[in-house]
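=== Given protein ===
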Amino acid sequence: MIPRRTAFPALQAMFAFAVLGVVAIGCNGSLPFGSTGFPGETQAADRIHAQANDALHRWADAVAKSGGATISFVGDLTNQVGDWEKAVGGNDKLALQAGMVVAPTPLSDVAPSRGKVRWVNGTAIDVDVLSPAAALADLAAAGGGECADCTPLVVTEANLATSLVETSIGPAEVPVWVFALKGTAVHLTRVAVDPSVTVQPPPFNADNPPVGTSIDHAIGTPDSRKLRVSFVGSDAGPTCADNYTIEAVESDLAVVVIVSEGPSAGSDLVGHDCTASLTLAQPLGKRAVLEIRQGLPVPVSPA
């Protein structure tokens, strides 16, 4: 299967609709992430198109490994409810970032009954739900860095609830575990959906940093070919997007959006919010929309 490209200067394509879901396709052995291509796939003309092809391939691999899952969460799966009090704010914020969250009294490792992920458009699927112990372990493992002087956060209670979470095909109500903490009114939440039903693309090759400008959000509907995206550009004002060309490299599973800076783009060192539109070769459907640098899905909203 050969990736499909569609490109439109932003000035000619400032409509107002767009996107929702996407999934991946091929690439070749010379691509920056080192994946292999599908039979019949053409050689990408330059690095950024090779990078887009590779992102589609990696997404397809991730979908296959998940057994064809349709869920990909966007952003952090751990969230904080409330603000740290001044007396604990310094320690507790750093402890959370380092993943130093413990339960002196072990939480249950028994998974509750199956739950549902319900999208705001009314669709829903059944999912397996993690036990509170497994969810807390994921929360701790997601922390990065070290904090030798921090006191660990102590979990005193865990309750199952639901929360609105961004996915690659729009916001959805999903099961979450809510953890109460000792000495603070702040609660932590962690998405409780079993990862076996989610798409988790691997990280990019740190030895070969990707290029390009990433989009951070998309707007559209499954039945539309119009896609509106937002990104940070180097120009301010209403002409911002006029100086960029927006292109989509598509597969049956995903769409990678390439943002190319034109010769008249500004050189402002301060980033500015830009939006632009393009027309896809096919309606978005359930495909994911991926940003170019790491090939990760971005949040998608209805028009």
Remarks:
- Helices lie at 47-65, 89-97, 132-141.
- Residues 47-65 form the longest helix (19 residues).
- Residues 40 and 287 are 22 Å apart (CA to CA).
- The chain has two domains: 4-68+201-301, 78-197.
